[in-house]
User: What shape does this take?
Amino acid sequence: MKLVDSIQRMATLSKMVRKEGKTIGFVPTMGYLHDGHMSLVKAAKKHTDFVVMSIFVNPIQFGPSEDFEKYPRDLKRDEELARAAGVDVIFYPSAKDMYPPGYSTYINVERLTDRLCGASRSGHFRGVTTVVAKLFNIVRPDVAYFGQKDAQQAIVIKKMVQDLNMDVEIKVMPIVRESDGLAMSSRNVYLSEDERKSALSIYEALRKAEGMVASGEIDSKKIIRAIKDVISQKASIKIDYVSIVDTKELEDLPEIKSEALIAVAAYVGKTRLIDNVIVRLSPKILPDSEKKPGVRR
Ligand code: AMP
Assistant: This one.
């Protein structure tokens, strides 16, 4: 496994790999790796010939009062995990190379980024799309892998790729959870033992919502109420949002008609966690207008 910190060297290496006729799979991360990241690597290894992982804590996607400084970093540990997983290159550029003095170009995906996490993290997605576009230009991947854990991010990136005619396929992989259900996140290390226990209520609430939908509830207000009721039982959690939206435009859905993203963001103590589930109505409770003969859901 190679460790590359130079943008130029990474770009040259990618060019050589492509010249050999190999496909490049790309896994962008902020490091402090866990099994969620590794599931993306596994998928990349399965479907592409050469796997590049970037590790870059991107300053421009953090707000001034957010955790950029204290975000967990451990390149040695990440290096071992990546090597064991069969990553071919870790690309870890510096912030000063990515954003040299005078840097002035940003990418903004409109509409999709003003809701959910975008409403409380102003400028966050502008930072994400900008860095991902830069990384795509440097690494030139055939396929890039993202996690469903950051559902809005994946949708925003797909939109950017489509709108800007970028020549890369975006694959979104399922959320990897701890054995008790907590969604894996580098930020989980911030949680105290008690906070870690309280944080579980986020997934419990989402499971409850899934159960409601499975038994025929389609009224988003009622489902959102039920989610909030479960989470609010924990005094240390402050809900940022609970939303039920469609999976393309992220518009609020008053009723679940076919597929919906149920997304939660909440502060557990000072740590902001996100989680989500995608629900699909089974045919028997699908309103008649949504039923398609011969289509199984
Ligand atoms: P991060 O390092 O947190 O920026 O995440 C890098 C990539 O890993 C993003 O595409 C995330 O959506 C994905 N990811 C993070 N946590 C998980 C998880 N628990 N399961 C699956 N993918 C994840």
Remarks:
- The mean pLDDT is 95.
- Residues 52 and 164 are 22 Å apart (CA to CA).
